[in-house]
## 1
Amino acid sequence: MNSQVKKMLENTYIVFCDKFKDNKKAWDSFLEFIVADQKPMLIWQLNHKFEWLLKDASLIKTLDDMYRPEILKSDYYDHLGNLYFEKVIKIDKTDKKTPYLVSDKIVETMGNNSLEKKCKLVNILDPAVGTGRLLMAVYKRCPNGSLFGVDNDINLIRIALANFLIHDIPGHLLYADMNRYEIDISKENGKYNWQFANQWNSQQDKLKPVETILSSTKY
């Protein structure tokens, strides 16, 4: 982890906090700013066109002086995930619904052990992808694999999408509750649902449900 990148992102996020006076609003705008810089076409998925930025010449100058996308891209690490968990959300370890960040050691171990030494063309699914750090490790080991990630927390999916854009990782990230919506790509509903991957806003109202297997038992 490059401390220069960490510091740059922290300082940039503080600028957004000063602008919006609200951690959640600041984070959303901060992440959208980074994603739009990486993939300008994604702006059309947002609910705004950065009017708040274009009207503030002082803020534009501050961000232009501070934000360095080239050094962010140079360090292959989930800096955004770390920043989100350190500065934005409050962790309650007693609440099972509270998201958590997988440690670097676990990511390294799972990334190394989940694949054969000679990686072949395979589909790799992370059903609780979070900020995407495990799939980032897998991609580094297996760049020819097809990566799929699912999570029911749209904030985490957005961070994962940002990480994939920053580091040019091809993959499919879907915001969905896998207990309700089909994610098995071998099934018709699953194939249909994956077309809504890599979307900034929720598409859950368009997803098809888990396909149930009808029992042949006679009653």
## 2
Amino acid sequence: MTASQPAITISTTTLTDAVFDSLRQRIATGEILPGERVTEARVVEEYNVARPTAKACIERLVGTGLLQRANHKSATVTVLTADDIDDLFLARTAIEVTAATRLAESGDVPRTMLEAQRALDMAGEFDDRLGLVRADIAFHSSMVRASGSKRLARMHELITGEILLTIGSAGHQSAPVAAVAAEHAAILDALRARDSDTARARLVAHLDSAHRRVRSAFETE
């Protein structure tokens, strides 16, 4: 950032949370690329925050899997291998399908999931890929939390950072925003109808499609 550039604007919340959310969004959308260094000095300069705040944000990003750091090295944006992608979708599918099955038993879809779907629909209407990234992860995270299993929710949280990396990847972004929004709407409809078989089938198809897109883009890079 040069002297003529203003500090990046962040939303009003706790300062650490705001910087963390902004960095997470920039990584997820590819503004900060895989393998790129994210140092305390960089965060201090770009956000005009104190070094302890920058350090706390980086540590949280490492904890989510968005950043990785070897001993005594600067943190860098995680670079997923082909095997990482396959393993991630294996784990993600197991967690989310189990959560969807439990949620379909009650049909008690949480308000946060409905709000995420409205945001997805809006993103589809305006071809808003940034909005898609935010709403996509909110939809799936809300679904898992609504399953009522704290352990499923914790396991899902552990891979959320890597999920964001795939959502923001070139492969995932090759899909039309409106089509992705429609896939989520179909899953939501089945959950609300308490149709667990259809919910599972639609969720698996959705995740398989995303897996193929991400994997295909990786293989052509």
## 3
Amino acid sequence: FQNVNNSQIFDPLNNKEDIKCFAAVATSLNIYYPDAARSKNLYNVVMKGMRNTRPPQEQTLNIPEDKISEVGIIDVNLKDINGNAHKLTDLKGKVVLLDFNIFQSATGVPHNYMLRELYNKYAGKGLEIYQVSLDADEHFWKTSASNLPWICVRDANGTYSTFAAIYSVQQLPAYFLIDRKNELSARGENVKNLEEEIKKML
């Protein structure tokens, strides 16, 4: 990294604002040059920086109380960037991480980096990610999701999503673990160590 008078101009390993900038660049590189050494190197730098700093504060999602209900797994059937529909219940037999997220937010990029690490480690052992984007900007979502290896769909209703309401999503990102029998196993706020919980379920 560039230095001026022995001081770094950017510090992507310890400065949260710089990490956000580097993460945005890393995402773009990963979309267009996923196999390039520079893309992988920048990805590793961003991941190390996020580990060195406190995770970003979650974004509050305002959903009317009368739309929130407590249920078990309910099917989600939405379309991916190519217009293909994906049903959540079709993933029975796998351990599923159901994820609600907004890509165009401060938490979107670092959250997806965390998911990518988990997916790379455990997809071969039976983990699948079903990610629901609540982005208002469809083009931004399609561009950001074009290189994701897991199932990524979008609810055009955004933060007024019926699915988000049914799953009682009130903060983003939010995730749920579903076991191989298609039963809801855990909510994100009740999971202390996501990776360890996934390993137990596989």
